[in-house]
Amino acid sequence: MPGTLSFDDLKSQTASGAIDTVLVCGVDMQGRLMGKRFHAVNFIETSYEETHCCNYLLATDLEMSTPKGFASTSWQQGYGDYVMKPDLTTIRPVPWLDGTAMVLCDLLDHHTHQPVPHSPRAILKKQIARLDALGYSAAMATELEFFLFEKSLDEIRKGGFRDLAPISGYNEDYHIFQTTKEEMIMRPVRNHLFAAGIPIENSKGEAEAGQEELNIRYAPALDCADHHTIAKHAIKEIAWQHGHAASFLPKWHPDRVGSSSHVHQSLWKGDTPAFADSADALGMSTLMKHYMAGLITFAPDYTYFLAPYVNSYKRFSKGTFAPTKTVWSVDNRTAGFRLCGAGTKGVRVECRIGGSDLNPYLAQAVMLAAGIKGIEDKMDLAPPTRGDIYQDAKAGDIPQSLIAATATLRNSAFLREVLGDDVVDHYTRAAEWEQEEFDRAVTDWEIARGFERA
Ligand code: ADP
Questions:
Q1: pLDDT tens digit string along 156-183?
Q2: Is residue 126 within 8 Å of residue 344, measured between CB atoms?
Q3: From the CA of 81, how far away is ligand 1's center (Å)?
Q4: What pLDDT, on the 0 to 100 scale, is given for residue 165?
Q5: Which of 200, 368, 386, 401 is the most exposed place for a label (fewest CB within 10 A)?
Q6: What is the rounded distance in angstroms from the CA atom of residue 135 to the CA atom of residue 382?
Q7: Which stretches of the chain score pLDDT less than 70?
Q8: Where do the domains of the chain lie, and which CATH numbers do they carry?
Q9: Atom of ligand 1 nearest to the CA of 140
Q10: Is 119 close to ligand 1, i.e. is its CB under 6 Å away?
């Protein structure tokens, strides 16, 4: 499979003229690529060592505003710099752009050169290191669901985000004919990402008009998060190149199914799947049961990292495959956690709570941390639930709103222990700000409901 480039490959492709531009990118709190476009010659001569960005990049909202209340940076502190340290193992071609390569960066403190604690890549690396200390590695896969629209992003924005028309006229779940009509976008998405070293498995139509899903083969946790981030970026860019819009907003219409990002997880000891035990009725090892007990127990604490915006919580409605219950089940799509591959070497747990707007570094980090806690404390896993779990009054709920998820985040002794107070306080502030901004808005719904009749 074609893949990432070595630094020497980049040098030779720059010398031949095949590459002239290097995208040097960090990942922000929202999981977006942020950075600069370097001339390739400058990058291979000097900037490969490090470059800089304003440290507000880890303290803004989706609109790049500068909320007060972050301890790490502010107007008072002058919004200084972070070091962007290219991770040279992540150099890869960007085949959907001419003459372009990309590298992902770690964000470091400008003075100490230590990782910035609240940087998403650093947060995930910390939990991977904790797992490594226990003798395990994690294999993860995040599914990407999204909608394609008839018009381009620019047309839609200029039209005030009204009269949104998805690219297809009907529910296209598993449909080959309808997805053929979307191949001008999805074929380059699959092939360009594959050529960029991202192990694409497939794309398929999803259970709503205009909804697609991209599946990427499971990979070590950090690679999985890198793959997800680049794939999401590529989908938006390639749809844009073809005059269409791709949206990862979890719920764009009240009557339409939302978009998820399910996360498949398994632990490994070297090349051996540590979740598998052929002696168990479902093929689950004791380690897997402890891991899942931690995942389920702490789901309310970390829900914010699976659903970070006000809109994220609009996705959670009964009968839509978007689960809200902190229970597990065997191959049942209504539970928050689904056992997949029971009785096989590929036995794994799928978390189905996360929306298409999750930041994969943060989501994986908190779930790994919860699983590690379950292993360390040898937590007991309750038996699986059965049937339609939406109707199960005894099953626990995750927080049902951003306000509720912010409270469980803020008050989580577990997250404070595993992420650190500074990181929890940082993301709590981000969550509070999101709600404050929403509370300032006067929505269409309020006006339509009350303008005449209030
Ligand atoms: P689904 O029916 O949910 O689409 P798939 O069998 O297609 O399930 O697998 C979904 C994802 O699970 C894929 O991205 C795949 O690479 C990943 N996966 C398969 N085996 C494992 C494993 N052992 N650990 C983690 N992820 C895995």
A1: 999 999 999 999 999 999 999 999 999 9
A2: no
A3: 39
A4: 98
A5: 386
A6: 26
A7: 1-2, 318-321, 388-393
A8: 7-116 (3.10.20.70), 128-445 (3.30.590.10)
A9: 25
A10: no
